[in-house]
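Recall the central idea of this unit: under ordinary conditions, the amino acid sequence of a chain determines the structure it adopts. In this exercise we apply that idea directly, starting from the sequence alone.
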Amino acid sequence: MSAVPKPQFEPQAYLAVNNIEVIYDHVILVLRGVSLQVAEGTIVALLGANGAGKTTTLKAISNLLRAERGDVTKGHITFKGERIDQLNCSELVKRGICQVMEGRHCFQHLTVEENLLTGAYTRGGADLKADLEKVYQYFPRLKERRKSQAGYTSGGEQQMTAIGRALMARPQMILLDEPSMGLAPQLVGEIFEIVKDLNQKEKVSILLAEQNTNMALKYAGYGYILENGRVVMDGVAKDLANNEDVKEFYLGFSSGERKSFRDVKSYHRRKRWL
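Accordingly, the structure predicted from this sequence is:
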């Protein structure tokens, strides 16, 4: 078995996660030395099955772990060359990092527009009207539903609201967690097209955590695959999409005899990267 190739890290990447370890409740080791980088102006995919550590990695970057009794106990995280792992959440938003959480987490009793306005809280009230109009340009459906309570909108509209709320903070980087969850395939494609436009037109860098490997690799330039809290493979998105192991275990293709779930669960599989 070949060893996992070591990623070639730049000395001052835009976002750099350097060998972090995360422990919950002082005993549960969730991340086991995760390292990754996001270059400025790119989309990077963080892939893996449910429970692999994708959400924990994003929360470590945005410093949301403490609310769940988690801590980064080893390693460090830098943004634009400066350490950020000791900053609180509001300070990170001011510096340009916003997380769109898994499950949307809209304020159900507020209107769509009120939800969007909460995204601008840390930067004050300047140019709110112009920023709202920009969000509505990307999400015309939200303009139609702006006076509706967010709790009475569809899952897709709530996902749009969550992304729009992050845009109101004028982010330089968005941590996007499972944007496809619970959405119809057509709507998933629409959301990813908007993500691509935000990256290209607004120059927002994006770290995207996704179980939908096929869709994530279609839009990302680079990808990391997590298993059991470790990075087990990384590379250019097109190369990962063409990798036989990735095809078999994350894209659902197999060049040989189909394996049962029991085989996969028992690790009777190829996994050349381990």
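The beta strands are 15-24, 28-38, 43-47, 70-79, 82-83, 97-100, 173-177, 205-210, 222-227, 230-236.
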